[in-house]
Amino acid sequence: MNDRILGIAALALAAFMTWAGWGIEAPFAYEPVGPRAFPLLLALIIGLCGLRLAYKGGNAVEPNPAGANGRIALMVVFAAAYAFLFQWLGFIIATALMTVFVGRLFGGGWAKCAIGGIVMSAFFFVLFDKVLDVVLPGGLLENLI
């Protein structure tokens, strides 16, 4: 696999994201740009990067080091589990668990990952839910927060 194949795949992903994100509309206007702006902006960035890779690519890509493919597969499993458990567990617990497991994938110790996950999830919950007024699910901690 080389950079050009990855660039073409990124262009296809950007096209799909544009198609899927174009029809997103909120039932009421709560901000000037609306919910469609995020996926379209992300599609633009991915598309520009893909265009650059498709145009300037062609370099051979070295194979992943030993064990990397397994960690990549686990990362996909963790992301899927996070998406499925996010509403039920709530933002704080789901994000803390995700942070711990991803930190462990990258060689972090249990204590450092746990402390980092708890601090990060609590900080971002307060930032988004309380300061920026972005409603996040409380999940199992709903009655405590």
From TrEMBL:
DUF1468 domain ranges (all copies): 5-137
Chain ranges passing through the membrane: 36-55, 76-103, 109-128
One Pfam family recorded for the sequence: TctB
UniProt keyword terms in alphabetical order: Membrane, Transmembrane, Transmembrane helix
Signal sequence, renumbered to the chain: none
This protein's name: Tripartite tricarboxylate transporter TctB family protein
